[in-house]
Amino acid sequence: MDGENLSLGEEFLLVGFSDLPHLQAPLFASFLLIYLMTLAGNLLIMTTIYCDARLHTPMYFFLTNLSFIDISYTSVIFPPMLAHFFLDGTYISLTECLLQAYFFMFVLSTEVVLLTVMAYDRYVAICNPLRYMTIMNKGVCMQLVVFSWTVGFVDALPHTVLISGLSFCKSHTINHFFCDVAALMKMSCSSTSRIETVTYILGAIVTMTSFVLIITSYINIVSSIRQIAAKGGTPKAFSTCASHLTVVILFYASLCSTYMRPASTYSMKENKILSLTYIAITPLCNPIIYTLKNAEFKNVLMKEKNTA
Q1: Residue 235: its pLDDT value, please?
Q2: Of 3.30.230.10, 1.20.1070.10, 3.40.50.10740, 2.60.120.10, which CATH number belongs to 11-307?
């Protein structure tokens, strides 16, 4: 198939980690453990929040959505990736590849916007505590979540449509464990300048705008905290900001280092490792960060444990 154009009915070969035969067993065990821990941690958060009325607040509503997102994109990547360890690579049609790439971009963009919404929630909780429940009422919270998913859905469409029009004549082998957009662009013999332009424009509109809004929220949060501290107090919601800020830094650092650069500088081996940061590490760390740093959530878990 090398040297020929691929149509939507033909296939790519996903190499996965089959190029590291001496590490197959430890890698499989590690990724399986990470996946199971990610599922367990995020399901624990969702179940605990759903079952305890004390956690039915805007912050935990957004956290439930974040956990659902983490479960979604790890589940679309990890099961096929784990199957690679029992096969000498896995064949996937171009149509399936585009669907996987679209869904992954969809939930990734949704998480970008949702993290911004969570920053706004913390801003209102600290800067306008007396009006918090009025501003962040159920209707507003639902609208913000729907907006996050809508932006993700729309943001992923242009990339997928443009990639479906590329010719893939260089190779049919993808040295990756999933259909990464950057990998598909690298393999194409067509010009990818239009897709790169779209990527940078949408990146500026969605990712960078979200990042600026998060920074703006935290500038106002820090300013309010300093004023409260000068009066000898500490805002009750302050502890939750550290958890959210840690997740934001980890997420944006890995995302920008992977995608916000020209396709000409793309290295499949390098990006295969970088991708593990936001696909494996971030969804695994999110439940740990939020539960370890959150006294209220830990108290609920301890009471449920004692009750059981």
Answers
A1: 59
A2: 1.20.1070.10
